[in-house]
Amino acid sequence: MENPEFQAYRLHAGAAGEPPQGRYDTLTADQLSAGDTLIKVAYAGLNYKDALAQAGRGGIIREYPRIGGIDLSGTVVYSADPALAPGQEVVVHGFGIGVDCDGGYAEYARVRHDWVLPLPAGIGLRDAAVLGAAGYTAALSLHWMEHCGLTPAQGEVLVTGATGGVAGVAIDILSQRGYRVCAMSGKPDAADYLRSLGAQEVIAPPDLSAGIKPLMSARWAGVIDSVGGPLLAHALASLKPDGVAAAFGNAGGADLPTSVIPFILRGVKLLGINANSPMPLRRQVWNKLAAEYRPAHLDLIARVIEPRELPQALAAMLERGSTGRSIVRYS
């Protein structure tokens, strides 16, 4: 069984009260977390969770050393599962990779075979990484929103935190599906970028200093929200009757200062999106990403970096200094 030597960006425990320290270590495959499938990594995504982990915030990683990177695409080297043939192109995200076990920021990754998803026809390794956990979350949000009856005929869909990776893919998919999309962003210079992805309108976040009314003027048929907190409460109060919101982030805070009024007077629906889905649902949503949910502007969303750029790029995410979806290239 192969045991190659390779480079990995690994987080080590910092001194008491200090954040973890990232180092480039030379490892062999048998030094990786346990698993029965070895993957040669082609690309790994940069996610907000990875940035928090590098900064030692949020208690993301509890055991060190740890190779970060919560999603990756690559080719199978070997696997205990005969359905995963050597050379097969695959994607892995969730299941604790990059957090509870070693993740994608290395030339090789070792995982359990039942965490590995063969790529559907039409999606290559680069596009799979640009999508990654972020694209899957965007597609999963729309999957459940449409399951609840959302259609383009019902009206506008608001996408908050619009310059983020999930939001960018969401705008692209919604536009391809025929929805009218309004992108909300606090970055005025990103308006042209957001329109290029398919947003018909770009607006700034509202001033919420005066508080949030239980009900506001009904505008949105749907909301895809990566911010949470008061902004999500404001969006819920602005949904049309039978509107639906999908929530998966808390960059704006974990508290939700709302009431039952939008739910009982307008019948709105709030969907919690957990991207760590069981494999049958993953296959269904990835197949949609290869077909009816296929984005048209991944080249605009993507920024490809080299491994040496990884620490700085992760730090920039926490300073709101990134737009779209960054991926690190290993092969």
UniProtKB/TrEMBL annotation:
Protein EC: 1.3.1.95
Top-level taxon: Bacteria
Under the heading InterPro entries, the entry gives: Acrylyl-CoA_reductase_AcuI, ADH-like_C, ADH-like_N, ER, GroES-like_sf, NAD(P)-bd_dom_sf, Zn-ADH-like_protein
Q: What Gene Ontology molecular function terms does this protein carry?
A: acryloyl-CoA reductase (NADH) activity; acryloyl-CoA reductase (NADPH) activity
Q: Keywords on this record?
A: Oxidoreductase
Q: Establish whether keyword Cell membrane is in the entry.
A: no
**SMART domains the record matches:** PKS_ER
Give a single Pfam family match. ADH_N
* Enzyme class (EC, first level): oxidoreductase
Would the keyword Oxidoreductase be found if you checked this record's keyword annotation?
Answer: yes
User: Where does the Enoyl reductase (ER) domain start and stop, copy by copy?
Assistant: 22-328
Name the chain's protein: Acryloyl-CoA reductase
**Which organism's genome codes for this protein?**
Achromobacter pestifer
